[in-house]
Amino acid sequence: MRLKTIDYQASDAAERFVSSLKETGFGVLTNHPIDKDLVESIYQEWHAFFNTAEKRAFLFNPQTQDGFFPAEISETAKGHSVKDIKEYFHIYPWGRIPDSLKDNILKYYTNANALASELLEWVEQHSPAEVKQQFSIALPKMIENSQKTLLRVLHYPPMSGNEEPGAIRAAAHEDINLITVLPAANEPGLQVQLKDGEWIDVPSDFGNLIINIGDMLQEASGGYFPSTSHRVINPQGMDITKSRISLPLFLHPNPQVKLSEKYTADSYLMERLRELGVI
Ligand SMILES: O=C(O)CCC(=O)C(=O)O
Ligand SMILES: [Fe+2]
């Protein structure tokens, strides 16, 4: 099976997009309003930034979680023991951001948030009545003006040959948040796991926009929308010398939003972060 790409401007785009999310947890859009030149500039300027020592001056703040996370402390996915081969920078509009990189990244943050809100409207409209009635408030409303939505700029460095055995760029995991919006990275590697266990490539032509369901939407929809496992595999051949930059926007509801009988967005996030050992 292959993931189909969906033309955002087609008359049946919303329906096809939501059906892809339901089937695979992923939806891939072409012809969408996110500016490719802006994404390209962000990839170039952040790649350069990750290659400077300046990044160390932005070492993350453990309380607020904004800033630079070096490879030495980078994530270990839930259920895994080996660290991912990556470093990253957490952008919140209220957080620290290098001055020279602010304009583009904040423009992207705003635009991608606006599109996410429209896509959540599509999800809301094409959810069956019994699923829709479980949402405590409309899905776009859940993320409106949220201070928790996180833009992560990821840098997967070229392979050195000294990686820990078994380490990959991003081990299989599910995202915690409501949905994730991710422009295709500058290099391939992203894969999603299908219901039968098979791993398939997510179509990663530059310009594609990838959206995936996170655990919070799975929880809020009573399991109707699946938060599927995905991973980033290591490059092969000549590509081992290349860096990979990617830019997931993790849409988080406002903390007080009720996800289900059991959880608010805040109680859900705290439980997950505790499990991960990061708080
Ligand atoms: O780099 C990618 O393409 C995906 C990253 C990802 O899944 C994550 O950071 O949660
Ligand atoms: Fe992810």
Automatic annotation (TrEMBL):
GO biological process: one example: ethylene biosynthetic process
Cofactors demanded by this protein: Fe(2+)
The reaction(s) this protein catalyses: L-arginine + 2-oxoglutarate + O2 = guanidine + L-glutamate 5-semialdehyde + succinate + CO2; 2-oxoglutarate + O2 + 2 H(+) = ethene + 3 CO2 + H2O
Cross-referenced InterPro entries: DIOX_N, IPNS-like_FE2OG_OXY, IPNS-like_sf, Iron_ascorbate_oxido_reductase, Oxoglu/Fe-dep_dioxygenase_dom
Enzymatic class: oxidoreductase
Keyword Cytoplasm listed: no
Gene Ontology terms, MF aspect: 2-oxoglutarate oxygenase/decarboxylase (ethylene-forming) activity; metal ion binding
Tree of life domain: Bacteria
Stored Gene3D superfamilies: B-lactam Antibiotic, Isopenicillin N Synthase, Chain
Pfam families on file: 2OG-FeII_Oxy (PF03171), DIOX_N (PF14226)
Keywords: Ethylene biosynthesis, Iron, Metal-binding, Oxidoreductase
Protein family membership: Belongs to the iron/ascorbate-dependent oxidoreductase family.
The protein's name in its UniProt record: 2-oxoglutarate-dependent ethylene/succinate-forming enzyme
Taxonomic path: Bacteria, Pseudomonadati, Pseudomonadota, Gammaproteobacteria, Alteromonadales
